[in-house]
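Course assignment 3, question 2. Fill in each field.
Student: A.L.
Task: Predict the tertiary structure for the chain below.
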Amino acid sequence: MSELSLTALGSLPNRLVRLYAGLALYGVGVALQIESRLGGSPWDVFHQGLSIHLGLSVGTWIILVGALVMLLWIPLRQRPGVGTISNVVFLGLFADAAMWLAPAPDPLAARWAFLLSGVVATAAATALYIGAGLGPGPRDGLMTGLVRLGLSVRAARTLIELTVLAAGWLLGGTVGVGTVVFALAVGFLTQFFMPRMSFTRPAARS
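Answer field:
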């Protein structure tokens, strides 16, 4: 990464704050979507299905799956960063803590509030996390690795998302309207938050 781009990202402490704030917020987003019981992202459906079928908490499976996905980086020649390792270690812990603090509501209106808040939180967290510039998450790195093998971004993303969604559904994860809402909204919201979550330094005056 060039000196200019590093300067734009800010100091290392600044970037670490963004990284861990993003991971914490992402964990909250995951928890809210799962607790809504209306369906979550494909990866969360997969983690939930593993939890239902094999035991252990959803957060534990987020950690274990993240670590296993990183093993697939080896043949894809992907290199992890501080953000990658932090994602594997902390995201599941944040998700489990948020689910413990915010138990599932019963009224449908509250469940919708959980779902929509979770999708928005996930998008904002993604913008924070990417803005830190400290390495992709293990699941994102899998996608970019497949792109390096010749797949388009769309094909790689679709292949991965459909595979984990189908596996999660077969394992008993909740696929529902929330899954559709996430698919339709998260890209737009992430794009919306990216420039607003950018903490670039102003250009020096000559």
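Instructor remarks: Residues 10-196 form one domain. The chain has one domain: 10-196.
Grade: pending
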